[in-house]
């Protein structure tokens, strides 16, 4: 029996099935991008929930995963992209 891949949300820190999480990465230009496929780069997984995005920033999970400071505009841009990915 095959188990689905599990990942940890960098916002709420809960482990969930990978398909229920959105992968976000920092591309080589240093921009935050939502990755549908496996994209190289530092990144983490997030639920498509505003509170997970917010707490990933507030608790420093996103800065740790991305190895750089997160600006408020990054959060808005990230949320915008996450909404686009899932329609
Ligand atoms: Zn979460």
Give a quick precis of the structure:
By secondary structure, the protein is an alpha+beta fold. The chain has a single domain, classed as YlxR-like (Hypothetical Cytosolic Protein, Chain: A). The chain has helices at 50-58, 61-66, 72-86; strands spanning 6-8, 15-17, 22-26, 32-35, 43-46.
Describe the structure.
The protein has one domain: Hypothetical Cytosolic Protein, Chain: A. The radius of gyration is 12 Å and the shape is globular. It has 3 helices and 5 strands. The chain has 87 residues and is α+β, with helices and mostly antiparallel strands. Helix content is 34%, strand content 22%. The longest helix is centred in the C-terminal third of the chain and has 15 residues. Strands 4-3-5 form a 3-stranded antiparallel sheet. Strands 1-2 form a two-stranded antiparallel ribbon. The structure holds zinc ion (ZN). Zinc ion binds next to loops.
Q: At the first level of CATH, what is the class?
A: Alpha Beta
Ligands and ions found: zinc ion
Could you give the order of the helices and strands?
EEEEEHHH
Which percent bin holds the helix content? Answer: 25-40%
CATH superfamily: YlxR-like
Q: How is the biggest beta sheet arranged? A: 3 strands, antiparallel
Any idea what the radius of gyration is?
Answer: 12 Å
Characterize the overall form: globular
Estimated share of beta-strand residues: 15-25%
User: How many structural domains does the protein architecture include?
Assistant: 1
**What class would the helix/strand composition place it in?**
alpha+beta
């Amino acid at each position: 029996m095959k188990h689905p891949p599990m990942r940890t949300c960098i916002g709420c820190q809960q482990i969930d099935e990978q398909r229920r999480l959105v992968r976000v990465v920092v591309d080589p230009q240093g921009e935050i991008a939502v990755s549908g496929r496996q994209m190289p780069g530092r990144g983490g997984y997030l639920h498509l929930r505003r509170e997970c995005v917010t707490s990933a920033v507030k608790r420093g999970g996103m800065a740790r995963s991305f190895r750089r400071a997160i600006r408020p505009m990054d959060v808005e841009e990230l949320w915008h992209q996450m909404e686009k990915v899932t329609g």
